[in-house]
Amino acid sequence: MGCERNHGLIAGAVIGALLAVFGGILMPVGDMLIEKTIKKEVVLEEGTTAFKNWVKTGTEVYRQFWIFHVQNPEAVIMNSTNVKVKQVGPYTYRVRYLAKENITHDFENNTVSFVQPNGAVFEPELSVGSEDDNFTVLNLAVASVPHLYPNAFVQVLLNSLIKKSKSSMFQRRSVKEILWGYKDPFLTLVPYPIDPTVGVFYPYNNTVDGVYKVFSGKDDVSKVALIDTYKGKKNLDYWTSYCDMVNGTDAASFPPFVEKTQVLQFFSSDICRSIYAVFGDELNLKGISVYRFILPPKAFASPVENADNHCFCTDREVSNNCTYSGILDISKCKKGRPVIISLPHFLHASPEVSAAIEGLNPNVEEHSTYLDVEPITGFTLQFAKRLQVNILVKPAKKIEALKRLNKNYIVPILWLNETGTIGDEKAKMFRKQVTGKINLLGLVEMVLLSVGVVMFVAFMIAYCACRSTRAK
Question: Positive or negative CA dihedral for 292, 64, 116, 180?
């Protein structure tokens, strides 16, 4: 380039400066356009991307069950030995495949009400055996008697019915019966009206969860999908103080623009409480950047370790005066039945909790709960919800099947892993409609800024060089 072309060099520098300035301006303007688009599309109203996926998830969700097969039932009944268990599974069911029902918009309060139908379809190709496989497990009806009927006289009467039905502390049942219900021979003999059907998740099929009322986000996107009421109330009536509040979303999505510093709160009807997750890692899921939020150990910690959990301690005897971690007594939520929730294999629980159980092997990788959330939209694109269902068994002198026990047992029945991952087609569509456009805009911004700066610097250096040569 000749030195006499000063005007051309200046023009080039000006063009470079303009490109750089345009690139710099495009950054906040582009971010504003993205934010405006996202805020529009995450609102729960007809026609938005969020609403379509919210009504019926496009992700296939599965529940895998591992049954704890009791190896030494007679030794436990006769000598109160430790319970030896062996997990067998997975037995897999497809769940959450039904669309939300009774969807009602309240445009004045910007809320949406709905119920979530429950259904489970067995997937034999994803299971280790048939749902007719039989295992030795705790007898749910017999184990519940001392809790539901503490009166000694009533226990004597019920004991006669237990013996007449030839029931005991343990029983042989199929996977299908354990999960979804069976007519208990002892309960069928009870002379007053009572549902004789018993099962860990009975009733489930053909039932609904809700009514939920959530915010649509129309007036305030920071509230989108947050639960306003559950079954018509803002509280559960299971716990005291703030522990009883229904907080957060249902974990399927969260308000957009999620930060790593956030604590994501969500409500789970399975454990009858609200809970939370904290940031753990940043991952790439099928070409989409997601934040992994994990359920922290302190969520189920004792009040001694986490004072915020004081109102979740309801049984001071079982929890050793609220000093044991890793268990949640949800008996009030289960009509008095002694159901204890924990993480699988009593992960993060106090050693004393599982001292009477042999055959457990807690593993953080296999037994932790996590949510993989796309931070811009707040959509949960992958998750794993893992929990264990246990029954508290206490000695009962008037119940022959339980009278030789000399200690309390928290007996694991099963643990489950509910998982869902965005499908390949959905991921492709998400990349195209959301992350792809954002990345393209970011690339254009950087190219314009970089090219502009390089052009400006190069032409200015050349211009100065020409001026210097002319001066000599």
Answer: negative
The letter for the amino acid at 59 is T
User: How far is residue 383 CA from its own chain's centroid?
Assistant: 7
Element (H, E) at 437: helix 436-471
**The Cα angle at residue 335 between residues 272 and 144, in degrees rounded to 5:** 115
Q: Write the pLDDT tens digit of every residue in 229-245.
A: 999 999 999 999 999 99
User: Parallel, antiparallel, or unpaired for β 370-373 and 380-393?
Assistant: antiparallel
Residue 253 DSSP class: B
Measure the CA–CA gap between 234 and 244, rounded to whole angstroms. Answer: 9
DSSP structure string for 62-116: EEEEEEEEES-HHHHHHH-PPEEEEEEEEEEEEES-SPPEEEEEETTTTEEEEEE
> In sequence order, what are the beta bridge partners of 292?
281, 372
Query: pLDDT of 26-44, one tens digit each?
Result: 455 445 555 666 777 788 9
Q: Are 305 and 319 in contact (CB under 8 A)?
A: no
List alpha helices for 415-435, DSSP H.
424-430
Q: Which helix H or strand E contains 445, and what residues bound it?
A: helix 436-471
DSSP string covering 266-330? EEETTTTEEEEEEEEEEEEETTEEEEEEE--GGGG--TTT-GGGGGG---TTTTTTTT--SEEE-
Cα(399)–Cα(183) distance, integer angstroms: 21
Long-range contacts of residues 318-324, Cβ cutoff 8 Å, at least 24 apart: 318/392, 318/408, 318/410, 320/352, 323/350, 324/349, 324/350, 324/352, 324/353
Q: Answer whether 391's CB lies under 8 Å from 143's CB.
A: yes
The larger pLDDT score, comparing residue 429 to residue 95, is at 95
Q: Which amino acid is at 332?
A: K
Q: Which two tokens stand for residue 412?
A: 């694991």
Strands 370-373 and 61-70 turn out to be unpaired
Contact 326, 350 (CB under 8 A): yes
Q: What is the separation of C-alpha 134 from the centre of its chain, rounded to a whole number of angstroms?
A: 29
List of residues 6+ apart from 438 with CB closer than 8 A? 34, 376
* pLDDT tens profile 257-297: 999 999 999 999 999 999 999 999 999 999 899 999 999 99
Quickly list DSSP for 186-236: TGGG-SS----EE-TT-S-TT-EEEEEEEE--SS-GGGTT-EEEETTBSB-
* Cβ neighbour number for residue 188 with a 10 Å cutoff: 12
